[in-house]
Design brief:
Structural class: alpha/beta
CATH class of one domain: Alpha Beta
Helix content: 40-55%
Shape: globular
Order of helices and strands: EHEEHEHHEHEEHEEHEHEHHHH
Radius of gyration: 20 Å
Largest sheet: 7 strands, parallel
CATH architecture of one domain: 3-Layer(aba) Sandwich
Oligomer: single chain
CATH topology of one domain: Rossmann fold
Length: 355
């Protein structure tokens, strides 16, 4: 891994991975391609370790000419592909962008790698970052998702990611492109755009706003601290067997309502208010097709690559809440983005209170 292209490296997981990579590969040059849409920000790239080895390129992964020039001229040997539209609620309101970025963008990168590398794949790797949502939903008694679980996507977002996964595998089987895939559970941690559950709850709470919880709040997610995820991606890209998929999960499965209550309890301790923050919780109409439960079987990545998460939900959540409280400049930059308030109103404002 000498010349590494990271797509979407100004987003939440991508920017955390860039930080991890600059420390894990001290001799590597990192080329960061990001379109800087609403969820990507240069704020996420401030204070990088050894910034001289980081090269930012503002551009679209669907721009075939740009991607080809970058891979060819910089002699890229490793592609780590994060760039994606990733919010289920946004995919319900506007699915077209998800098909364009997640499907066509992935195709552009795969085809560029195939053509520029020209079949000489020695020392090359294409790593694709995906999601557990491609597997659908679990009932309370179902076993956790494994790498062989059939795909059953239920939202435009998860369907677009499932399509991109299939494309990546097809390029391995058809052209021999050395790929690896990681399917991760719900990430949390520093620099997550505040449309997602945990930062939304933290930032709404400290502003005295309602904490909207879908339905009965009994949905279950497997929460993965972002730094642990970065380590898993690195190990899979560096040491994973070409053509293989690895599930990555945090081993934490609280109900959403319990997670929100824990966030409120941490805020009560770190930033006390006149009333307990839990009084702000408001159950609202559930979103369409809301998957009930996710869980990840991580036995394969543990056995083959020796990876295990380092953070449990208690320590990771406390660190995360503290980070948002301690970084008001970042928070203001994100909340000040054009259209953010209007999107929140569009998504949550029309939802009725749940019974």
């Amino acid at each position: 891994m000498n010349k590494i292209l990271v797509t979407g490296g100004a987003g939440f997981i991508g920017s955390n991975f860039v930080r991890y990579l600059l420390q894990a590969e001290p001799g590597a040059q990192v080329f960061n391609l990001d379109l800087l849409t609403y969820a990507g920000s240069l704020e996420n790239l401030k204070g990088l370790p050894d910034e001289a080895r980081h090269n930012f390129i503002h551009g679209d992964i669907c721009d075939t000419g740009l991607v080809a020039r970058l891979v060819r001229e910089q002699q890229i040997d490793t592609i780590i592909h994060f760039a994606a539209e990733s919010h289920v609620d946004r995919s319900i309101l506007g699915p077209a962008a998800f098909v364009q970025t997640n499907v066509m963008g992935t195709f552009t990168l795969l085809e560029t790698a195939r053509q520029v590398w020209g079949g000489d794949f020695h020392g090359r790797r294409f790593h694709h970052v995906s999601t557990d949502e491609v597997f659908g939903s679990l009932s309370p008694s179902d076993p956790a998702f494994s790498e062989t679980t059939p795909y059953d996507p239920r939202s435009p977002y998860s369907a677009s990611k499932a399509a991109s996964d299939h494309l990546v595998r097809a390029y391995f089987h058809t052209y021999g492109l050395p790929i690896t895939i990681t399917n991760c559970s719900n990430n949390y941690g520093p620099r997550q755009f505040p449309e997602k559950l945990i930062p939304l709850m933290v930032l709404n709470a400290v502003q005295g706003k309602a904490l909207p919880v879908y339905g009965d709040g009994r949905q279950i997610r497997d929460w993965l601290y972002v730094e642990d995820h970065c380590e898993a991606i690195y190990l899979a890209a560096r040491h994973g067997k070409p053509g293989e998929t690895y599930n990555v999960g945090g081993g934490n499965q609280p109900h959403n309502i319990d997670l929100v209550n824990e966030i409120c309890a941490i805020l009560d301790e770190l930033r006390p208010a006149a009333q307990p923050y839990a009084t702000l919780i408001q159950h609202v109409t559930d979103r369409p097709g809301h998957d009930r439960r996710y869980a990840m079987d991580i036995s394969k990545i543990r056995a083959e690559l020796g990876w295990l998460p380092r953070h449990d939900i208690e320590t990771g959540l406390r660190e995360t809440v503290a980070w948002y409280l301690e970084n008001p400049a970042w928070v203001q930059a994100m909340l000040g983005q054009d259209g953010y308030d209007s999107w929140l109103e569009k998504n949550y404002g029309q939802r009725e209170k749940a019974n």
